[in-house]
Amino acid sequence: MITLQFTAPVDNDSLQIGDIAYFQDASSILGGFNQQLSQPIFLGPVISFNPLGGGPISTITIDDLNPGTQGVIQPGDFLMFGKDTQANVSGLIGYFAAVKIKNNSKKKAEIYCISSGITPSSK
């Protein structure tokens, strides 16, 4: 198991238990994004994080499925996660959806297009 303790709270609402965690060594990108980067390193699935149910995250626990990654992650490295494609293969489920669009900029913004896909799921 890998337990990552963050010095500052991480506010990420999309992290879920079962998401697949990866990391990238920060020293490989110090010269900018034009360098040829190595692939992110697979860690394993997220098995817990604190606090559950929303709010800033202070601790993430990962089931270490990649031997040799224990103790390799250093402060300043990039932690990433992806959704499990077995469980997240479709879009919204149900009959209703609510969308909230937010503009955090102080400048005027325009929306040119919003679309959605609809698939009958109750047949």
Task: Give me a quick take on this structure.
The protein has 123 residues and is an all-beta fold. 0% of the residues lie in helices and 28% in strands.
Written overview of the protein:
It is a single chain. With 123 residues, this protein is mostly beta strands. The chain has a domain at 2-82. It contains no helices and five strands. It has strands at 2-10, 20-24, 41-50, 57-62, 78-82. It has a five-stranded antiparallel β-sheet with strand order 1-4-3-2-5, with no helix packed on it. A hairpin with a 6-residue loop joins strand 3 (41-50) and strand 4 (57-62). It is extended and about 45 Å long.
Give a topology summary.
Layout: E1 2-10, E2 20-24, E3 41-50, E4 57-62, E5 78-82
Quaternary state reads: single chain
- Uncertain runs are none
Number of strands: 5
Count every helix, treating DSSP H or I runs of 4 or more residues as helices: 0
Any idea what the radius of gyration is? 18 Å
| Elements, N to C (H/E) | EEEEE
Average predicted confidence as pLDDT: 75
Keywords summarizing the entry:
123 residues, mainly beta, five-stranded antiparallel β-sheet, 5 strands, extended
